[in-house]
Amino acid sequence: QVQLVESGGGLVQAGGSLRLSCAASVRTFGMYVMGWFRQSPGKEREFVATITWSGTVTDYADSVKGRFTISKDNAKNTMYLQMNSLKPEDTAVYYCAIAPGSTWSRRSNDYHYWGQGTQVTVSS
User: What φ, ψ does residue 16 adopt, rounded to 5°?
Assistant: First the structure.
């Protein structure tokens, strides 16, 4: 019922930018929240950003606030993560996810559907 496909990852130098996309194929769904998470080797998956269905409410992890911007285009069923001023510590596999409902969340357990991930590598 739900397919999420991330794209846009790659290798970039510190200080550079990347824009991730998450194309969602969603059937028989009401409203849902979308989010970005990331996971580095040996670390737990961590919250990056979330956005509500309307796009009017967003939330960011402190580590990316002011550098990353989450947005979505409901007409295209696509969510984006614009990442600026990238740092080596941003290196991770980035996942997009969907949480049914209208309440945004930072908890990965609230997200029921996940993409396959896209690798972001930031060199120093």
Answer: -85, -175
The amino acid sitting at 8 is G
The single-letter DSSP state of residue 93 is E
Which amino acid is located at 74 in the chain?
N
The whole-angstrom separation of Cα 4 and Cα 98 is 9
**Maximum Cα–Cα distance across the chain:** 44
Structure confidence at residue 28 (pLDDT): 63
C-alpha span between 97 and 73 (Å, rounded): 15
pLDDT one-digit tens code per residue, 27-68: 766 789 999 999 999 999 999 999 998 888 999 999 999 999
Q: Is the dihedral of CA 100, 104, 109, 114 positive or negative?
A: positive
